[in-house]
Structure formats: structure tokens, C-alpha cells
Amino acid sequence: MRYKYGREREEKSAEFRSKKPYQYVFSGNMLIQKKLFFELNYVENDKFYGMDIYFAYQLFSRKIAVHHINNAIFHRGLESNEVFFEKALQSVISRKRFLVDKVDIEQLNPLLAYYKKIKKYRLMFISKLFFKISRQFLKRNILSKNPNLFYFDLYRLGYICSEK
After folding, report:
1. What does pTM read for this prediction?
2. Given phi > 0 = left and psi -120 to 50 = alpha, else beta, which region is 157?
3. CA 128 from centroid of its chain's CA atoms
4. Which of 45, 91, 129, 134 lies 20 to 30 Å from 155 when distance is taken between CA atoms?
């Protein structure tokens, strides 16, 4: 799962990432002043998974230009599907906790954009119901040897709608 997600969702050229510079902020693939990096990152003692989007929002809201570079990242070992899945859910909770009410956040994060549309059109009950019915099916696929990333997206969307 981690490998497939990385290849299909994160492994993008600098040229591609530059078209939506705040949507693809990975600290290993951009140039930024060290002072700004530490100043704008989440600084609380609590560590939350998936805070790249928080950092991206800080850059976006301050209109700080992002210079993307092609810098390959090599992993010395990928975490299991289960570990990656749990971290992804932690990331969903972090986004809801810290970012859902930020102005124009939907421009940076598709998950939050869909969540806000569901709320706007009062489809929360239907979304929760769909998630309750399909949750186990989606999870089984996500943790399988051939996970479907669309199912992963649906799971995260259902999860953010169901979490308080």
C-alpha cells in the first residue's frame, strides 16, 4: 500500500508539483530557507502524522513561493500496509483538527475539499451511512496485496465524515 501510494500519488516531477505548488509540499523535495521551515512548521510538543499539509497551508496563507526540486527520496524499508493505513487515519484526524476551518484549504487538499462539499450540501448522514455499510469491504481491499487507491480515498472521506 505504501509503495503504491508513493508511486502513484507522491512521486511527481518538480514541473508537475509546481503547477499546484501548495498541494504537493514534501519537505524533501523543495527549497526553502531553514529559518522559514522551522518558523512555519507545527511546533507543539505533540507530534501528529501528516502535518506536511499544515506546513503547506502556512506557506499558502502567507503567499510564500515554493520552489520544487527533483530530489529522489529513497526509503530503507517500507512500513506494512497496516502501519501506513493507521498513519493515514491519524493524518485525517490531524487535518480535521487543525485545518478544516482554514480559509481556502480546499485549494490545497482534495480530501478536505470533498468533506466541505459534503457538509455544504448536507450529505453528512448519507456519507456516514455509506461508510458504515462499506467500511469493512473498503478496509479489506486497502490492506490486501493489490489495494485500490480510490477505495482508500473513499475510506478516508468516510472516516473524516464519521469522526467527531
Report:
1. 0.91
2. alpha
3. 20
4. 45
